[in-house]
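#lab-general

N.A. 3:47 PM
ok so I finally got the sequence cleaned up, no stray characters, all 223 residues accounted for. can someone with queue access submit it? mine expired

B.Y. 3:52 PM
send it over

N.A. 3:53 PM
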Amino acid sequence: MASDVAAGPPRPLWDLPTRIVHWSLVVLLLVSWLSAGENMQIHRWSGYAIVGLLVFRLWWGVAGGSTARFTHFLKGPGATLAYMRTLGARRPSDGPGHNPLGAWSVLAMLAVMLVQVGLGLFASDLDGLESGPLSHLVSFDASRVAAELHETVFRVLQALVALHIAAIVFYWAWKRQNLVGAMITGKRPFQGEALHPAALWRLLVGLALAVLVAWAIAKGLRF
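B.Y. 4:20 PM
back already:
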């Protein structure tokens, strides 16, 4: 039976910023879900934190460690379809980073999260008492539409997360690949080139961008 062991000893795969963003999003999405309609102050602050994380992840996808970059793991339709035809095969780790199908699922989740949090920034409740920080930039009717879409898009996000978890279970049970462990330790046995970390200045720029954007949105773009 194929397993991670066949690919050799664990090697560096995910850098620390990528792992922190991943698990922080897991926690904050749960917080946002549970606080919606219950504690809107926590819901808002959770949303601002998610905005910052998404800004950082987009920057890190361009300037981060090698395996975190979009150009490293996003493949075209041909490569994705070819991978899907071999999806049921039990074999060693496919290589460093995401496989072609998993890469597009990650991009889809990031895109839906951006839409989800973006709608929340403009949303308003029926009484106009609980409003997003940018709701003053649109009409009340538009803010109500944003609120309704905010709820709808969250259902889409839930479905994508469920598929993501199902894929993790499939890889663990069938392919004997521990994807969760790799996202915790940053290491996994695989074939191919190992992680090339990004320079410290790239991390600092990403952190500055994330904090600046989240702060500006929390202020309602009022300076």
